[in-house]
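> forwarded from #structure-qc
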């Protein structure tokens, strides 16, 4: 049974998640367009009018405005309320799982980065360098901090460094092999950097299982598409599956590892 105090804390985390989700919407919209995420203030991309405070409230404004711009009436994509709600829910799950430990803030940050990348990949089939490259750097700095001050690192500095090379390298090998066999590019360079980023944050051990979960999830979706007779050439973004795998490895590494070993029959 949850105490009132705990309930209040989770409410506050959910509110924080809604606000972060609102910011992530700006990131998802602007980064692929090479726009600044700080300037100008939020505005309608169609008519350009600046959002009034009451038009900028997560989820509620979207419902209030019935998904349309107040001034020009052009539709506001569903991604806005969905990403805000998703960020709130996943942030609450991270706090519920990790509690108020030193690794909470890094875990939340990684969750938010993965959410932004997932949405961008779904919309544009791209994973922008502007997020993955600093993401790799931040992961290395975060885990490098363990050399001076343990407590916030998610893995050891050596495991993180190895994770970058293994994450990037393993997909590079797969991509080259696929290209040799099919003569087509199967994976974008963004996928390689994303898995390198996962390695930087969670260590090389997590790279394998992230890839395993992503292949499992992506493979099942691919099979469904083939069974429904949709084209083989349907370009499926792999980033969301990598992001999901990484997020599950962030929160349930032991359960996933034993599940994996169980599948292998050991
Ligand atoms: Zn408008």
């Amino acid at each position: 049974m949850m105490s009132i105090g705990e309930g209040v804390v989770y409410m506050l985390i959910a509110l924080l998640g809604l606000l972060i989700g609102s910011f992530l919407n700006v990131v998802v919209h602007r980064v692929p367009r090479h726009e600044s995420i700080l300037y100008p203030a939020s505005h309608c991309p169609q008519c350009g009018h600046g959002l009034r405070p009451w038009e900028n409230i997560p989820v509620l404004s979207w419902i209030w405005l019935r998904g349309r711009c107040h001034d020009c009436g052009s539709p506001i994509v569903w991604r806005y309320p969905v990403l805000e709600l998703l960020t709130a829910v996943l942030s609450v799950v991270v706090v519920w799982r990790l509690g108020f430990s030193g690794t909470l803030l890094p875990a939340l940050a990684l969750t938010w980065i993965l959410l932004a990348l997932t949405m961008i990949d779904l919309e544009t089939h791209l994973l922008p360098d502007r997020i993955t490259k600093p993401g790799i750097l931040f992961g290395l700095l975060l885990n490098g901090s363990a050399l001076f001050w343990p407590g916030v690192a998610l893995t050891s500095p050596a495991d993180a460094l190895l994770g970058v090379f293994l994450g990037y390298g393993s997909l590079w090998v797969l991509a080259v092999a696929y290209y040799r066999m099919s003569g087509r590019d199967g994976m974008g360079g963004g996928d390689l950097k994303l898995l390198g980023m996962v390695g930087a944050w969670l260590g090389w051990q997590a790279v394998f299982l992230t890839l395993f979960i992503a292949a499992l999830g992506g493979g099942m979706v691919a099979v469904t598409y083939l069974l429904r007779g949709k084209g083989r050439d349907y370009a499926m973004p792999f980033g969301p599956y990598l992001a999901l795998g990484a997020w599950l490895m962030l929160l349930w590494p032991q359960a996933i590892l034993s599940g994996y070993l169980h599948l292998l029959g050991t």
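QC bot note: The chain has a mean pLDDT of 90. The chain has ten helices and no strands.
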